[in-house]
Amino acid sequence: MSLEHKGFFASLFDMTFTEFITERIIRVLYALAILGAAGFGLFPAIAGFQFSFLAGVSGLVLWPILFLIYVIMARVALETVIVLFRIADNTSESERILERDYKKQVSAEEKAEKEK
């Protein structure tokens, strides 16, 4: 990844995939996951009252548990994605440092050879 960050839309349509947008939109994705968990869980719980009172109460009791499970799963999945991006960033940085150090070493060896 380059040190200069492109704009969001420039990164979005970057066909070389040198700029990543995931790290920029991860918070939005997490918020959408929470809203989705709330909507998809609460709607069936409330709709359960159309069938019977017991189905509605059961849905309302189970909804918080299912909501938490879904949010935890979404959080773990998104954290895994971020960890992969950080591994890639750290690997690139390590490669850059090793390459710089190698060039210094080769330069020092060449200088020592010339002095002989």
Descriptive account of the structure:
- The protein is mostly helical and 116 residues long.
- The chain is 84% helix and 0% strand.
- α2 runs antiparallel to α3.
- The two termini are 41 Å apart.
Brief rundown of the structure:
This protein is mainly α and 116 residues long. 84% of the residues lie in helices and 0% in strands.
Task: Provide keyphrases for this structure.
single chain, mainly alpha, 116 residues
Q: Could you estimate the helical fraction of the residues in percent?
A: over 70%
Summarize the helix and strand pattern as letters: HHH
How many DSSP H or I helices? 3
Beta-strand portion reads under 5%
Q: How would you describe the shape?
A: rod-shaped
Mean pLDDT: 85
Please specify the SSE layout and strand pairing.
Elements: H1 8-12, H2 22-51, H3 53-115
Helix pairs in contact: 2-3
